[in-house]
Each structure stands twice: as structure tokens, then as C-alpha cells.
Amino acid sequence: MTTLSDLERLTRNLPGTENKMPVLFVGHGSPMNAIESNEFSQGWAVMGKQLPKPRAIICISAHWETKGTFVTAMEHPKTIHDFGGFPQELFNVQYPAPGSPVTAEHTKESIKGALVGLDHAWGLDHGCWSVAKNMYPNADIPIIQLSLDYTKNAQWHFGLAKELAVLRTKGILILGSGNMVHNLGLINWNDFNAKMDWAEEANEKFKTLIQNDDTKNLISYDHLGRQASLAVPTPEHYLPMLYALSMKENNENLSFFNDKTMGPISMTSFKIG
Predict the structure, then answer these.
(1) Fewer C-beta neighbours within 10 Å, C or N terminus of the chain?
(2) 16-74, pLDDT tens digit by residue?
(3) Do residues 262 and 181 touch, judged by C-beta distance below 8 A?
(4) What distance in Å separates the CA atoms of residue 206 and residue 117, rounded to the nearest whole number?
(5) What is the DSSP string of 103-146?
């Protein structure tokens, strides 16, 4: 069990504000991106090489929804294969990155707006490891996951996420993993990547709001019209984007990458800082 002295020893030696880590939001798309060499997996690999090496990663994934807020706190998180219908090769993948009970405790202490539970059962789901595997193939960066409380609205999540911003100054990479546009109910099963005008329009609308720092309308996405309603039929893939945006400071640079819409899914990603 991590003690207060462990936390004090860690934080005393962590870097200061001048070494603030960037924040990432990634559109993770299909789990197959974990093992395929394509423009998206290659984009993650390039980003992993460009970023300063983090001391640890906190991932907010679309695929861990809970009642309440939890953070993984085990030493060795398991690789979760939370999908079906894919080749056995994908199910064989293991991503043995270490956990970080110290980072979990520090995350818990940083969040004042919710009671954060320490979880020892979850692990790393594909929203996390499919991206991390390409960014950090050596699996040598400690990773923890923060859950999404499905009982709370977007405004609450945006406020909670702001409390994580201080961890950027501790050498910790905050990684939101979801998709700004994600509606598998409208996928064309004869052509997965068939162009859908509403998806492209929604993606461009979200990008414009992001570029304009219009977080008010991004939080109230359900009032942005038909395209946005189709793009976000349920919030879990959209919320990790809000987590990342909440940590953007005034005049801080934001740049897009992997900027492409495929059928009813947007792979558009961005880096802050």
C-alpha cells in the first residue's frame, strides 16, 4: 500500500511547471489499429517519439464507465480484450505496462470534486492499450486509468477534469481516448468507410469550436443540431475529448493529427501544449 511518505517523496522530486507535459486526445477507432500498420497507428507512433517521455500516463478511456469515479491502483494491470468478432491475433496481444499505485493515490488526492475509489480489478482496456502499444511499444511507461462516471453530465466531467491539470506539472501525460464522432448504429456493413456527410459536418463543427476555444457549446453538444446528435448518440466516446480540452490554458497551442473521418467514426485527434 502506498503511504503518504511515498507520495511526499515522489512529489518532492517531480518536475516543476517549466516541464509541463502536453495533453492528448486520440480517436482510437477499431481495436485492429493496435496491430495494423496504418496512418492512425503510425500517427500515434510519431506522437510517442515527439513527446517528452512521461513519468506516467493517466488514460481516460471511453470503455471504462462506472457508477462513481475510480482509478486503477494495481502494480500490474491486465490487458483487457473488451471486444468480440476480431482475429485471434488481436486477442493474443498483451501490453504489460506497469501500473502506478503512487500515481493513483496522487490522482485521488488531486480530485476534490468527487470521492475517488482505488480499483484493483479493471486493468487496461483497448481504448488505452491499443494506442499506448503504438506510442510506447516497450511498455515501459506506468499507466493508470480513470473511469467515467455514467451518472454525471458533461459539465460535471469537464469540471472534474480541470482538477487533473496540476498533474501535467508532475511529468504525467493525460491521455483522453474516444472518438468525437462515434455512431456504430449507422455503420454501413457493406462499406465500413463509406462517406457520411453528417459525420464529416459534425467533425468539422467540433473542430471549429475547439479552435475557437468554445467549450460552452462543446459541453452543450446536445444543442448543436442534427449532425451533432448523430455524432454523439451516447456520451462515452465524446467525454474523453472534453477531459483533454478542460486542461488547455489560455494561449496554449493546440494541433490536430490523424484528422480523418471514416464512415460514422472520426479519428481526429489533437495535442495541447
Answers:
(1) N
(2) 445 799 999 999 999 999 999 999 999 999 999 999 999 999 999 999 999 999 999 99
(3) no
(4) 32
(5) HHHHHHHH--SSPEEEESS--B-HHHHHHHHHH-TT--S-EEEB
